[in-house]
Structures are given as structure tokens and as C-alpha cells.
Amino acid sequence: MKRLEDRIYDALRGTVAPVPAAELCVRHLGAASSGQAAAVRILEAALRRDPRFRRLPEGWEAVPDSAGDRLAALRWTVLSAATRPSGQGPLRLVAVTRYQPGADSPVECQIAAVGPTDALREAAAALEGLATPQLLTELKVLRVLDEAFAGGGLCLRGLNARDLGPWLQVAEDTGSVLPEPLRSLADVGWLALPGGTRPGLDTLLDFAAVATRRDDPFMDELAALPALLPRLAAELAIQGVERLDELDDALAARHAPVDFGPYAFTPADLAALPETPGVYLFLDARDSVIYVGKSVNLRRRVQSYFRWRADDDPKLVRIQRDTRRLRHIVLGSDLEALLEEAELIARHQPTVNVQLDVQPTPREKGIEDVLLALLPHPEAGKARLWTLHPGGQVHSLALARTGAPPETLDAVLAAVAAGLPHPALQVYREASFPLALRWLRKNSQSITFFKYHDFTDRAALARAIGRALAEPAADGPRIYR
Question: Could you tell me what percentage of the chain is helix, strand and coil, using 3-state DSSP and rounding each to the nearest 5?
Fold first, then answer.
């Protein structure tokens, strides 16, 4: 499912004249005239942050691709993270640092922290004025990451890769559009610096001529980025790497290629995978499942595991070393893929998945009414109705776009309201409820949903579902009451 900015970008690329923001709101947000002023402000703020858009007096237009993939024109985003023990529990920090090569403005650094208040005060003192951490819920931190990912450009994983892993895992679980590939800051430094090994933090600090007195790799990295990123951009240009595709080619040449000899699949098989949501399973020589993953784009995600031979990522090393066969399941939406992934992990207990150091999340606030959401189905001519009950039940129902028999739909909705099973409903484990609820909350701006008691009776709700099924796919959210 495409984000709002992506849908607007695709639409603007096909226009010959700039489009006013008010018209974009009507087309993509369905904003009525009464609420259009606020919607225009929100939309323009989002487009200003995205380097793919340009504002002219007549309205907004898409920046041509030829200019957008030059490293000097791209926004560089570096994601850094740290997990620190404290007396009241772990303090988790994530920093999003943005840099525009050639711009006069300084690096923008946004740091969010999730943890005990006392630990936050200690972190604020350690930052020494570099930035002030904000006490945010994990969901708000994920929105910070969403903003970074959605803007395109060059996304780099900082040097604190292990600490960033749990954030990226949770971001994927809640529907973030993770950048593929998420390149390594050390890899880019490897291209710019002479030598045969990937540079560490000290080497990069020397390269940027940054003197630090903090005995903290996370703070040292943040302090070095304002000087380091321009030096990397300049050095890459000297070496003839000026475009994003040239960067990927240069990195591929530096890394050793993957030997596909042990595998029962080839690069051509990976290139033939569908670009749809789904789950994938890696199996070893005994046909045991060693890893289960999901993606909104199966081809792109699976290919990323075999782009080049891994040498510094333990998870990727194990996948490349132990995988022999690949299976995949095409699904209709990222939510369906997320819950199917959870079901398969619970069933197979794959060894690589359980090694992920994913931090426990705080208890989510529940819901007071039955929530229903209409999402795509992998088969043409169908949709899938998802239902969440306040008691913690998650069900789904496949519906033809032509609608279901009224008596069947009425019986299903009655069961849903009572939190009871029905033969037509697919039932998910209770552990799926927080995953589904977080996903729906995070993607509420791009889905069609219903609240059960907003309708006078089940017949009115069934009619609204029927209307939604008959309508073409929406460019933005539709809320039915």
C-alpha cells in the first residue's frame, strides 16, 4: 500500500502543469471545503520535507528523476541508535540526522528517547547541547522513522547497527516503508577511504578531522556527522561516484558476490518474485524453516538478502550460510503479511528469528468499540474485511467485490460484535491483536475503516460495507458512519 506522498508523486509525474495544494487535497485526501485550509497546511508541510517535490507559484510539481538521483541533490539521512542500561530499565535512543550536500543549512538532528525519566535526564546532560532528547512513546518514535524513510534520498544505517536492529524490526512490524536497501555508513566510508577493510568510528573521526572527548560511540557519531557527511560526499564525487545507481554499483564491486551454488534457486528466480505483499521462508538442507519474514514487496526484500556476500551482519551471515530453499506466500496487504508472519514464526520457531533482540513494548491502549477495516485481497475481485474486538479477538473475512449475501454478512457481523467465531471468519491468535491494532493505528490515514456502533444497526453497517466494496480503490482514507 503506497504512502500518501508516493501516490501524489506518481500522480504529479504524469501532469504537464503544477497542481495547487488545494486540488491535491481534494484528489488525495478527500478534504471538503470546510476543512481544506488545515489539510492544505498539513499537505504542504509534508511535501516541503520531501526532495521529490518542488513548489512553484502555480502549485506543486514532481522533481524529474534525472535530478533526483544525483547524490548532490539527494537528502542524506543517517539513523543511529543506542540502548543503555539504567537503574530503572533500559534507555533507548534513536537519532535521525539529515544532511543536504551543498546546502548552507546545518545538519538537522532529531533525537527521541524511550525510557525512564531519570535516565532521560542523564542522557540530556550527556548530549552537552548537541540536542535535547524528547520523551516519546514508541509509536511516535516510529512516526519519526516513517518521516525519514518516506522522504527518499540516501538512507544510511549508522555505526550502532546492533542497537538500531530492534527499532527497524518494530518499524517493519507496524507497517513502515523501510528503505531498501538501507545502506551502511561504514560501507559508504569504505568507498571514500583508502584501505581494504571497512572503517570503524575512530577511522571515520580521523577522516573528518573531528576531535571528541566523549567516551560514548553514540555521541561521538552524532558529533562527527556534520563534518563527516560533507567530506564523504566530496570524496565520492572525486572518485566519480555522483549518482545513486553508481553508488550501488561501486558497493557491489567492493563486496564479494554471493555464491548461489548451494541454493536451489538462482538470481533469475529472485528477479521473478512478485512485487506484492507477502511472507517468505528460508529453509535449510533438512527443510527446516530457519527464518520467516514479510514485506510489502517480496521481490525487493528477498533480493536484498543476496545482493552481496555478508561479512559483518550475523543475521545475514546465518541466512546466506544455512539457506538452501525459498518459499513465499502472496498476500493482499501488509497487515495480512504481518499476522501471517507471526503465525508462521509461532508454528516453526525459526532459529534466526528468535535471535533478534527485540525489546518488549509498553502495554498498548485498547479499543472500546469493534473496529473493522477493509483491505486488499490477493485475488482480483475480492477484498478482505478485518475485525478487531475490544476483548482481543482478531478475525478476517474474504468478500467478493460484488458483495456477500445479506443474511451471511448479518450473521458474521453479529458474531464479530459478540467476539465469537463464525465458520466464514479466519481466526488469529490472541497475540496478533496488539500487532494488528498498532498497524491499523499507524496506517489509519490510508485505509477504509468502520466503527461498529457508529451505525444504527447491523443492516446499516452491512450496506456501508457493500458500498465500500463496490467503490474503486481510494486514493486516501474513507471513514464510514
Answer: 45, 20, 40
Question: For the CA atoms of 172, 178, 184, 185, what is the dihedral angle to 10 degrees?
Answer: -110
Q: How far apart are CA 143 and CA 375, in angstroms?
A: 22
Residue 341 confidence (pLDDT): 92
What CA–CA distances, in Å, run from 242 to 104, 106, 180?
A: 19, 22, 19
Provide the pLDDT for residue 426: 92
Cis peptide before 181 (omega within 30 of 0): yes
pLDDT digit string (tens) for 32-67?
A: 544 567 778 778 877 877 767 888 878 888 876 555
**For the whole model, what pTM was predicted?**
0.74
Separation between Cα atoms, residue 143 and residue 146, nearest integer Å: 5
Dist. CA 465–CA 461, nearest whole Å = 6
Neighbours of 351 (CB within 10 A): 14
Residue 152 DSSP SS3: coil
Helices 432-442/138-150 angle, 10° precision: 50
pLDDT value at residue 125? 67
pLDDT at 161: 73
b/e per residue, 410-439, with b = 16+ CB within 10 A?
bebbebbbeeeebeebeebeeebbbbbbbb
Contact 302, 339 (CB under 8 A): no
Rounded CA-CA distance 5/168 in Å is 21
Distances (CA, A) of 384 to 143, 289, 331, 410, 414: 26, 28, 10, 16, 17
Mean pLDDT of the chain: 81
Model pLDDT for residues 214-226, shown as the tens digit of each residue: 677 888 888 888 8
C-alpha cell at 316: 545475514
Task: Give DSSP secondary structure letters for 353-390.
Answer: HHT--PPPPPPPP--SS-EEEEEE-SSTTEEEEEEE-T
Residues 205 and 185: beta-carbon distance below 8 Å: no
Low-confidence ranges of the chain (pLDDT < 50): 1, 33-34, 355-362, 474-477, 479-481
Q: Measured between alpha carbons, how far is 73 from 240 in angstroms, rounded to an integer?
A: 15
Contact 417, 452 (CB under 8 A): yes
Please answer whether residues 438 and 367 qualify as being in contact, where contact means their C-beta atoms are separated by less than 8 angstroms: no
